[in-house]
Amino acid sequence: MDIKRIREKVRLGLYEVSKHAEVERRKDGLEIKNIKTSIFNGKIIETYPDDPRNPGCLIFGVDESNRSGGNLPQRRRGTEKIWK
Question: Could you list the mean pLDDT of each consecutive 10-residue stretch along the chain, which spans 84 residues?
């Protein structure tokens, strides 16, 4: 996993938000911009290359309100799926 590649895909809008992530982000009171800011300011702290759903990683970063978020399983077809 390459944080620069993930950030570039997020900048270009080449990501999807899963239904699970949507539910979790709403429960946590987060907006998509909070998650994106966490990705842009964060770093990969764990990788999951053998996850049966999709390889992924855990990004730790904070948004402007000092909240964290951003667990990203990698997606095929050039997009990223943002999970919480």
Answer: 91 86 85 88 88 83 68 45 48
